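HOLO CASE FILE
Compound: manganese (II) ion
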Amino acid sequence: MSIDLHSHSYYSDGFLSPQALIELAKKQGCQTLCLSDHDTTAGLDEAQDTADKLGVNLIHGVEASALWQQQTVHIVGLGIDKNNTILQAGLKQHQIFRKQRARLMAKGLEQVGIKDAYHKTLKFAPKKMLTRTHFAKMLIDEKICSNMGSVFKRYLTGNRPGSVAPQWQAMSAVINWIHQAGGLAVLAHPFRYRFTNAKVGRLLSAFGEMGGDGLEVVVGGSLLEEVNKAAQLALKYNLLGSMGSDYHGWAGEYRQLGKLPPLPNSITPIWSKLNTIKYQA
Ligand code: AMP
Ligand code: MN
Ligand code: MN
Ligand code: MN
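Model generated. Tokens follow.
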């Protein structure tokens, strides 16, 4: 039986419905799953219904975007009370920014000749919560790019036509929302930010000082050397260890739900603290 504390449904940029995601977890022998959609908790009720039917332990989560030193980082909130008003007010700001950003991204793409980019992209998002993943899928479908790597590089990052400066809330604020909602804050996929080693160290130091609780030590697709490097960082910065596939469910994805290498023995698993969380109103 496995544990997977990071996954997505079609309420953000995953492909599967929450129901299908939980059914897959059950099939894969994943007993404990966290649904952590980007900046929304809207899929949790549906996920909980299926989890109750199938006997899967659902951890209520969210993967909140955040800004640290003008750059985007991702914070997974684990064991949150999704009805907490401070958390929802914070996420609402991100949902509003996502709507504005999607219009600006579409405008940038139209300026380089990609017509009706907004409506074409909406077709890939059943719940109309547009992420860069959806724009990427649209650009591949339009045969403008052939794979996710090139589409992000050529259209969706830096000064490229579909890129918009991020306006997420500060990392300290995001950690606070999660704590107010009774959850634990985990810094997701530490090596995916393209930061130098020194900068990852400064990020984790800042994250710990702001009250951050854990580090995603085992990430979907990690090499053993990356797991070991992340484990050393968790020990150095006194963070609990999390593990999550970051499964999105699109065809051709290399990550598998609930299939991860083990957390190194030296690391205290963050899930050892999850049962004791007392939800606050
Ligand atoms: P957003 O939060 O809307 O900016 O979208 C970020 C999402 O885009 C991430 O959560 C990933 O799922 C996806 N993503 C970012 N960079 C890449 C990449 N190089 N290849 C594939 N997916 C990516
Ligand atoms: Mn994503
Ligand atoms: Mn992420
Ligand atoms: Mn994710």
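CASE NOTES: Residues 13, 38, 65, 131-133, 148-149, 152, 248 surround adenosine monophosphate (ligand 1) (CB under 6 Å). The beta strands are 2-4, 30-35, 57-68, 71-78, 184-187, 214-219, 240-244.
CLOSED: yes
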